[in-house]
Amino acid sequence: MRVTDTTARARNPLAFLEAEIEELKANGLYRRLRVVQSEQRSRCVIDGREVITLSSNNYLGLNTHPRLKAAALEAVQRFGAGSGAVRTIAGTMSLHEELEARLATFKHTEAVLTFQSGFTANTGVIPILAPEGAVIVSDALNHASIIDGIRLTRAERKIFPHSDMEALTTTLREIRKTDAHRTILVITDGVFSMDGDIARLPEIVDAAEAADAIVMVDDAHASGVLGRNGRGSVDHFDLNGRVQVQVGTLSKAIGVLGGYVAGPASLRTVLEHRARPFLFSTSHPPAVAAACLAAIDVLESEPELIERLWQNARHFKTGLERLGFNTGKSETPITPVIVGAGAVAHRFSDRLFEEGVFAMGIGFPTVPEEKSRVRTIVTAEHSREELDTCLGVFERVGRQLAII
Ligand SMILES: *Cc1c(COP(=O)(O)O)cnc(C)c1O
Predict the structure, then answer these.
(1) Chain centroid to CA 261: how far?
(2) What value does the CA radius of gyration of the chain take, rounded to a whole number of Å?
(3) Predicted local distance difference test score (pLDDT) of residue 28
(4) What are 91-96's contacts with CB under 8 Å, separation 24+?
(5) Nearest 5 degrees, angle CA 76-CA 82-CA 87?
(6) E-assigned strands of 219-264?
(7) Cα of 119 from ligand 1 centre, angstroms
(8) 119 Cβ closer than 6 Å to some ligand 1 atom
(9) What is the rounded distance in angstroms from the CA atom of residue 164 to the CA atom of residue 338?
(10) Nearest CA to ligand 1 atom 12
(11) 114 touches 258 (CB < 8 A)
């Protein structure tokens, strides 16, 4: 018996997981998830401590908005807790169709198809837009879900340095020179999530038009933040009609969960027939679709939320800069505080948390090691007083750690 026991242990087929955890620890990358124990508002309880959070994507405070909560509760009463199946079998409910029609009107596009998340929207749509033989031209800082979507294709990939318009233009010209008919797909984030800078969309569209390329923008951090009533980066730059495919998320400023692809009706039809996350994964519960519909009502009827978001963003960013922090090239409510080494960023984040401010430390491999940072996101919900409290804590801890 003892021999068998020893053999069983020696052959633990999952032993590599322990080794991986040791490696994470050795590289200073091991972390525990922080647990939110209250509603997620500007002030919330995390790991047993009341803190002001600067880490939520809940830009407009919609995830606790009374109209969204009421819509979700009513949908549960009327339609139940789950949707029962994938969309192509019996999982398309009237609320899903209503949400898509509403989003299409909102985005000024012919049609919209929703997905379970922004992540699955990208992994669903990219293989459709870039069949074998196509070439994808992608910004180096695009989101992980775009990278994974690209990995699912058999298309050729060309990555251009972040927001380098010369490199993009040259790449497109070269591709077109060698093949006049090849499908070219240019993909960019609308707002880049680690630096808070906005894609140079007018130049991207000009370059793409000159090369007869498709443009796809992933507006996860721009939905509800940029453009009229939060319509996104395409509307922000008045490029409606010149960007063929817009991906959005319903999980960030919209306050709920989900992703969508907005574009021509033909795209929606092909996605319905071919996009794998749509075909093989169950649709949103009714409460999610209903809350998203209520969120669009709020975007249209309470534009002051977006106004307040931007006032808060300006106030906080200016405050950090006055204190002497390096905030990089942020142009949006995402403001990185760049500190250098990863260990410093994590120490900074831990100390801020002890002082009642939650802002995540981010290091390699998400950003280059020497540009490790604490990332802050302000929302419409933060009061001036809360933001000033945060600035005071940043100043105190920043001086203690000799960052400023
Ligand atoms: C957050 C994010 C996503 C994923 O959206 P989810 O709805 O959370 O899955 C996709 N793309 C970008 C650029 C993002 O920032």
Answers:
(1) 14
(2) 23
(3) 77
(4) 91/282, 91/283, 92/283, 93/283, 93/286, 93/289, 95/286, 95/289, 95/290, 95/293, 96/283, 96/284, 96/289
(5) 125
(6) 245-249, 259-263
(7) 6
(8) yes
(9) 21
(10) 220
(11) yes
Q: Is the CB of 220 under 6 A from ligand 1?
A: yes
Q: Name 12's bridge partners.
A: none
- Residue 94 CA to residue 115 CA, distance in Å, equals 15
Evaluate: CB of 218 within 6 angstroms of ligand 1. yes
In the three-class reduction of DSSP (H, G, I as helix; E, B as strand; rest coil), residue 60 is classed as coil
What amino acid is encoded at 391 in this protein?
L
pTM value is 0.95
Q: For position 29, what pLDDT does the model report? A: 79
Q: Is the CB of 286 under 6 A from ligand 1?
A: no
Can you tell me the distance from the alpha carbon of 72 to that of 201, in angstroms, rounded to the nearest whole number? 35
Taken in order 60, 64, 65, 68, the sign of the CA dihedral is positive
Catalytic annotation on 158? Answer: no
Say which amino acid occupies 182. Answer: R
Mutate to test the pocket of ligand 1, among 162, 249, 375, 377 (most ligand atoms within 8 A of CB): 249
Q: Among this protein's residues, is 25 annotated catalytic? A: no
Q: Which element (helix H / strand E) includes 266?
A: helix 265-274
Asked whether 212 and 222 are in contact (CB, 8 A), the reply is no
| Cα–Cα separations (whole angstroms), residue 215 to 99, 147, 243 | 24, 16, 5
Ligand 1 centre to CA of 220 (Å) is 5
Task: Quickly count: other Cβ atoms within 10 Å of residue 180's Cβ.
Answer: 7
Segment-wise mean pLDDT, segments of 10 residues, the chain, 404 residues:
56 94 88 94 97 98 98 98 96 97 98 98 98 97 97 98 98 97 98 97 98 98 97 97 98 98 98 98 98 98 98 98 97 97 94 97 91 98 98 98 96
Contact 260 CB / ligand 1 (< 6 Å): no
Sheet holding 156-160, edge to edge: 111-115, 259-263, 245-249, 214-218, 184-189, 135-139, 156-160
